[in-house]
Amino acid sequence: MALRQKKDSMERFAPLSLSDFLPVFSYRGRDGVSYLWVNWPVVVALAVGVALGRWLGV
């Protein structure tokens, strides 16, 4: 019997969390300082959605 070679496993991505969908949130760094992080793709998507909604009269 021939030995089967093990397939290379795909790289696994980190699971999504709630903070991945929030436009702005704060977090504490390792140094204890609080930082504000803006999730630009979510902010842009919200702005486009609001603009389209107003343009379409929804």
3D architecture notes:
- With 58 residues, the chain is α+β, with helices and mostly antiparallel strands.
- The chain is 29% helix and 17% strand.
- It is built from 1 helix and 2 strands; from the N terminus they run ββα.
- A two-stranded antiparallel sheet has the order 1-2.
- Strand 1 and strand 2 form a beta hairpin.
- It is flat and about 65 Å long.
- The model has no long low-confidence stretch (mean pLDDT 84).
Largest sheet: 2 strands, antiparallel
| Beta-strand percentage range | 15-25%
Kindly report how far apart the N and C termini lie: 66 Å
Structural class determined from secondary elements: alpha+beta
Alpha-carbon Rg, integer: 21 Å
Overall geometric form: flat
Strand order within the widest beta sheet:
1-2
Mean pLDDT: 84
Let me know the number of strands: 2
Helix percentage range: 25-40%
- Stretches where pLDDT is under 50 for at least 5 consecutive residues are none
Count of helical regions: 1
List keywords for this structure.
58 residues; single chain; two-stranded antiparallel sheet; alpha+beta
Q: Could you give the topology of this structure?
A:
Blueprint: E1 24-28, E2 34-38, H1 40-56
Antiparallel strand pairs: 1-2
